[in-house]
Amino acid sequence: MKNVLIAMLTGCISVVGLANSSISQGKNNVIAFTDLKKFDKSLLAVIPFDNLIGPDAVPADEKNVNRKALKDFKIRFNQVSSAQWFTIADGFISYFKSVDDISDRVYYNKKGNWTFTVKTYNEGKLPRDIRAIVKSSNYDLAITLVEEVQSIDNLVYIIHMEDKTSIKNIRVSKEGEMDVLEEFTKG
Fold it and tell me: Which pTM was predicted?
């Protein structure tokens, strides 16, 4: 499970490099963005499909998805009508937007067992206690994106933050433990 979460986080973070063609690498992890509005839009567009689903993902019809996964999905997300399914090496992924405009990705293994769910949303949907923890030590940074990763035995928030000069990606556990995953300086 840790390997899956680490791979997912690494993929999500690496989208920063794919979303902008003007990256300068150096000792200080300096990244130069020429147009932040385009960057934000491209990041939100790229994260749900290309990066977290993975390069080995193949679009799949529901008839090619494990029946156990489909049954579980219909119980967990009974109000979803337009889910997109993908086959990956380790199983299946469903991508959809829920009624409250949250982007969801649900991962199932080959046997159809639910593995984890990733919800992507903005700061307004972040639980207040988690927001307070993050903002208490990062009050000058704006929260640009939240990824809530729920597995069988864990819940983690990946908070993407930035200001005029820096970008920071922070992980917060449901218990409130916080650590910095990556930190960049804009150039």
Answer: 0.70
